[in-house]
Design a protein that fits this description.
Layout: E1 2-21, E2 27-47, E3 52-56, H1 68-78, E4 86-92, H2 103-118, H3 124-134, H4 138-142, E5 146-150, E6 155-161, E7 166-171, H5 178-183, E8 201-202, H6 204-210, H7 220-235, E9 240-243, E10 250-254, H8 257-267, E11 273-278
Parallel strand pairs: 3-4, 6-8
Antiparallel strand pairs: 1-2, 2-4, 2-5, 5-6, 7-10, 7-11, 9-10
Helix pairs in contact: 1-2, 1-3
Length: 280
């Protein structure tokens, strides 16, 4: 038996513009993503056989083909059947689900990298190609640092972000399905993202100017609560606030860690699930 383990980070979309529709049913987007200091923990072991086992104590997490980890393992060995092994994955789930923080995508990317470490089979570009078949955000998690993603989110270029930045992230008492959020998008009638948001390096001020998420209002039954959380974060000192991804988490940006801590102390009285995070 061989064994390896690693951490899978969450992400925030510091902006997300929907720029068009596609023939394949997806939407074209432009989004700036930063990994943040909230992690799932993944332990993986390989031994002779061909079964896939996913073990987790987290509620509501499927452990079959519906899980991105399961699909990552299937695709990894799909082109190298001679190397197929029995794979056991122990998942410690800390990133909230249906939250827009990319937990499932990060888990899949982490598993691909661990498999390739234990059973070297693919180049970096080949492994990223597999990642794109799993989900739109997975290629982002294959790379280090922050990224600007285009297309359906799978075309990612590395960018720089001025730091340090601190974030207060609030998870309301509901989740939002990515598939449902995009299905509710109405035909685009507004201009695309300003050219100033397509950069190789983002200053703190540029992030604040570009901060926007075109998905915030599509789930009408939750739009008012998303807005209320944003307003409260700004009231407590955030430079700006937005929903991340397709939601439901909402984050506020702070330039000073001390200010973020003050906001955490206040907003923790209003909401049960709150995180103070920093970019990594």
């Amino acid at each position: 038996m061989v064994h390896a383990s690693s951490s899978a980070p969450a992400k925030l979309n510091l902006f997300l513009y929907v720029t068009g529709t596609r023939d394949d049913g997806y939407h074209d987007i432009l989004t700036l993503m930063q990994k943040v200091s909230l992690f799932d923990r993944i332990d993986i072991s390989l031994e002779p056989g061909d079964a896939i086992r996913i073990r987790t104590s987290a509620r509501g997490i499927p452990v079959d083909e519906r899980n991105t980890i399961y699909r990552a393992i299937q695709l990894f060995f799909g082109n190298v059947p001679a190397k197929r092994k029995q794979v056991t994955v122990d998942l410690e789930k800390n990133i909230p689900v249906e939250a827009g923080m990319g937990g499932a995508s990060s888990d899949a990317a982490c598993v691909l990298k661990l498999l390739n470490k234990l059973t070297p089979s693919y180049s970096e570009s080949e492994l990223t190609g597999i990642a794109a078949r799993i989900g739109s955000d997975v290629p982002f998690f294959m790379m280090d640092g922050s990224g600007l993603a285009r297309g359906r989110g799978d075309i990612v270029g590395k960018v720089g972000i001025e730091g340090p930045l601190s974030y207060i992230v609030v998870k309301p008492g509901f989740g939002i399905s990515t598939r449902r959020a995009y299905s509710l998008l109405k035909p685009l009638t507004k201009p695309g993202p300003p050219s100033m948001c397509d950069l190789a390096f983002y200053t703190k001020d540029a992030i604040i100017r570009c901060l926007q998420n075109d998905l915030e209002t599509v789930t009408e039954e939750h739009a008012s609560e998303i807005h209320a959380i944003k307003e409260k974060l700004i009231q407590y000192g955030a430079k700006a606030a937005a929903m991340t991804g397709s939601g439901s988490c909402v984050f506020g940006i702070f330039f000073e860690e001390q200010e973020a801590q003050k906001a955490l102390n206040k907003i923790s009285k209003d909401y049960t699930t709150v995180y103070k995070l920093h970019g990594i």
